[in-house]
Specification:
It is a multi-pass membrane protein. Its main location: other. The protein has 219 residues and is α+β, with helices and mostly antiparallel strands. It has a domain of 145 residues: Up-down Bundle (Butyryl-CoA Dehydrogenase, subunit A, domain 3). The protein is built from 5 helices and 5 strands; from the N terminus they run αββββααβαα. A 5-stranded antiparallel sheet has the order 4-3-2-1-5. A hairpin with an 8-residue loop joins β1 and β2. It is elongated, with a radius of gyration of 29 Å.
């Protein structure tokens, strides 16, 4: 019962991780530049994401520009696109697999099959968390190094946006959920290895016949 509750808790964490992963991938808040000018018409906030760049104007207008060219983007943005998409796909697979393998569901067949499904789902969550953690760390490093560079003008410096923090938190949720699922299945298998089921040995019919034959010889 405790293991089933722990798996359900890990499943809830994984759901938050999946939704946060998708939101971080789509949101344009990876870089935020607050530029307040003296003119009321100038832009006050500029945001850059993996797929588009958006601008808030002081008049209340909001405009976005899609990044159509992939090869013109920096390497860390191209890598962030690829790894975040892989993270979303793996986390979605993990949700489907663990739904079948959880102890509180009636899917997946026998206990061994459900344990294997939970273990496979946990591996998917761990990989999704790693794929989500690498681009956020790399992107944050680029932002910080650009911010500390003295040759870069003040108007071109950026700070990490909300999508980066969302990616960090989502990756943590996915990693925790994956570790819980894998550890619960590992404990189950380890218990079967330490305490194997008792096997009852019954004398075979051939042994009984041999025993009977020897008794007749000695009478």
């Amino acid at each position: 019962m405790a293991s089933a509750s722990l798996q359900f808790f890990a499943f809830i964490l994984a759901l938050f991780g999946v939704f946060g992963d998708i939101a971080a991938t789509l949101l344009p808040h990876w870089k935020v530049n607050a530029d307040v000018g003296s003119n009321i018409i100038t832009a006050i906030t500029q945001m850059q994401g993996l797929w588009m760049d958006c601008t808030w104007y002081s008049t209340g207008m909001f405009s976005c520009t899609l990044k159509y060219s992939i090869l013109s983007l920096p390497v860390y943005i191209q890598a962030a696109r690829t790894t975040m998409v892989l993270s979303c796909i793996l986390s979605a697979f993990g949700i489907c697999i663990t739904t079948v393998g959880m102890k509180c569901t009636k899917l997946g067949g026998d206990t061994d099959s459900k344990n294997n499904a939970c273990f496979a789902g946990g591996i998917c969550f761990i990989l999704a968390g790693i794929f989500g953690l690498v681009p956020t760390c790399w992107y944050t490093r680029e932002i910080i190094s650009n911010f500390l560079d003295q040759t870069v003008p003040e108007s071109s410096k950026h700070e990490p946006g909300g999508a980066v923090y969302t990616g960090f938190i989502s990756a943590g949720f996915l990693l925790i959920a994956g570790v819980i699922f894998c550890s619960s299945c590992f404990k189950r298998q380890q218990g079967t290895w330490i305490y194997p089921p008792k096997q009852h040995h019954f004398p075979s019919a051939e042994q009984e016949s041999n025993a009977g034959y020897s008794l007749k010889d000695y009478v």
